[in-house]
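Shipment paperwork, digital attachment
Item: protein structure file
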Amino acid sequence: MRLKGKVAIVTGAGSGLGKTIAQKLAAEGAKVALADISMENAQKAAEEIQKTGGEAAAFLADITSEEQIQKMFAEVEREFGGIDLLYNNAGVSPVGTVETTTYQDFQKVLAIDLYSVFLGCKHVIPYLRKRGGGVIINTAGTFGIKPIPNKVGYSCAKAGVISLTRSVAIDMAKDNIRCNAICPGFVDTPLNKDFVGEERENFLKTYQPMDLKVQADDIANMAVFLACEEARAVTGQPVVVDGGTEACLYY
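Attachment content:
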């Protein structure tokens, strides 16, 4: 078990990608704190991990609230004795151009997809420092590298996450804290519910050279690698897991 004895927090862990990542970290021996805006979902996901012999607990947190993030970190430390890893996963993926997106909607996606990541990084660092170092992983996205039409808010937010990841990696290296981002491709999760069916299939046939469907497990496997000692020299990187889509996008 590559993460035995480590304490990991995953935000947005009540469903979708976050839930799968939490399960994979637990399977590698980590004690996992599942944070979600829905305590019911987080509790159910934690119970699933417990039934397989893993150690997990649910925590309520609105990741756009600085107060709630600080409270959640303190609760996790009391529950598990410390924090070694934060996975900033929670997010939204709205559609819209710069013309059709309202200022309020733009602010909302930045708050959830970018500002929350800043808050998580900022307030977890003292806990990681107390453990002699640690790991932060952020969910970015291929559209943060190469935007596509009708995704202005999401693309801007994820580009910000990539830049933030690099800044944290540079500033915190002296404290033995690594920070990386994972840029998923089109994974079958609730976040991508608006991009399904024929439209999705046509896009993948055109822009994804590998003939496969990227699964949540593919992202979770990368998360485990970045979290463990095998990746000790990897920091400040947006790691793309998308079957080659980003390499083919020409927008």
